[in-house]
Amino acid sequence: MRTSVGRGRIYRRCGCRDTQHHQLGTHCPHLITDSQHGAWSFAVDVPAPDHRRTTVRRGGFSSQDTAEQALSRFLEGEAGGYNADPSQTVASYLEAWLDAKALVLKPTTMARYRDYVCNDLVPAFGTLKLDQLAHRHISAYVTCQLAAGRGRTTLYRCLATLSSALGDAVRQYRLPHNPGSPPVLRRPPSPERRIWTAEEAARFLAHCHRADPEMADLFEFLIGTGMRKGEGCGSSEVKG
User: Fold this and answer.
1) For residue 179, how many other CB atoms are within 10 A of its CB?
2) How far is the CA of 59 from the CAs of 29, 39, 177, in angstroms?
């Protein structure tokens, strides 16, 4: 069975072989008599670098609708100039995502993203196809990491990196939804801030005077006046 969907073709094929051990593919008679036999595939002609055309074929889809959705995402990706190949792995996508982010993010932010991607996300999910990554995979990963004693704050930041990457995939029509949303972990509460005692403040200022006298004068002024972040000479609020 074959159908055309704009650009591209949807068809069902199987792995049965004839008496000569040749694969029957789309010509297996069971495909006509058994609607559950075989799996759905799509094929589409795309431009090649040498100005010719090549055919991209992807299969293994459980239904005609699933194959049509994969073909639609592939064509949307091609039109948008990004890779929408349903065979693309999570590792491949994250590597391309990092390359794109390197053009717009600060080096310190990129270093943190690369650390999470290379040391955590790719080892955990890299071999999965991007289209197959699901919320259950992320939830299982979190459960294992917490059981191994991983800190919740570090783990939350790692998952936030993954969710950011997957969110970009949704905005590019690469994925229909973000499997990292809703987040598996809630944002850990910030540690409660404690006001220094007079002795602690004195020890801090003594260290500053030894390490950087000019900054020590500034810190002493801030501590003595009780100024908070955001307050200063340009502030419209004047304390008496």
Assistant:
1) 22
2) 19, 7, 21
Which CATH code fits 90-171?
1.10.150.130
| Structure tokens belonging to residue 66 | 């699933």
Helix, strand or coil for residue 1? coil
Give this prediction's pTM: 0.60
Tell me the Cα Rg of the chain.
28
CA distance 74 to 69: 9
Q: Where in the chain are the domains?
A: 2-80, 90-171, 194-223
| Tally: H helices and E strands in the chain | 9, 5
* 125 CB-near residues (< 8 Å, 6+ apart): 90, 91, 133, 137, 138, 141, 162
pLDDT of residue 6: 67
The percent of the chain in helix, strand and coil, each rounded to the nearest 5, is 50, 15, 40
Spatial contact of 138 and 162, defined as CB atoms under 8 Å apart:
yes
Give the Å distances, CA to CA, from 138 to 97, 124, 135, 153.
19, 9, 5, 16
Backbone angles phi, psi at 61, to 5 degrees: -80, 145
Coil, strand or helix: which one is 18? coil
Q: What is the DSSP letter of 129?
A: B
Separation of alpha carbons 64 and 41, rounded Å: 8
Cβ pair 219, 204 in contact under 8 A: yes
Residue 212's pLDDT is what? 83
Is the peptide bond between 182 and the residue preceding it cis, with omega within 30 degrees of 0?
A: yes
- Residue 23 confidence (pLDDT) above 60: yes
